[in-house]
Amino acid sequence: MPWTASLELRRRLAWPLVRAHFAWRGVDWGRRWKLFGRPIIQRHCGRRIALGNGLTLRS
Questions:
Q1: Is the pLDDT of residue 12 over 70?
Q2: In this predicted structure, what is the pLDDT of residue 36?
Q3: pLDDT tens across 26-52, in order?
Q4: Which end of the chain is more exposed for a tag (fewer CB within 10 A), N or C?
Q5: Nearest C-alpha neighbor of 24 from the set 34, 38, 7
Q6: How many other CB atoms are there within 10 angstroms of residue 25's CB atom?
Q7: Domain that includes residue 47, residue range
Q8: What is the mean pLDDT of the chain?
Q9: Residue 40 vs residues 3, 5, 6, 46: alpha-carbon distances, Å
Q10: DSSP string covering the chain, please?
Q11: Domain total for the chain?
Q12: Rounded to whole angstroms, how far apart are CA atoms 6 and 1?
C-alpha cells in the first residue's frame, strides 16, 4: 500500500523529536516501541512513568 511507506517514513523522521519529548517528560524508554504521532504526556510532579517493551501508541 503506497500510503504505508510514507507513514513509516514520517514516523522514523519524527523519532528523535518524540524520544526527546518523552525524556523531557520523565518517561523511561522501552525497546521495540512504535509511535505514530506525538502522544500527549501528563505526569504529576515527582512521579515517574514506565511503559513496557513492544509498546505501540497512536495519537
A1: yes
A2: 79
A3: 888 888 888 877 778 888 888 888 888
A4: N
A5: 38
A6: 13
A7: 2-58
A8: 82
A9: 24, 25, 23, 18
A10: -HHHHHHHHHHHHHHHHHHHHHHHTTEEP-SS-EEES-------TT--EE--TT-EEE-
A11: 1
A12: 10
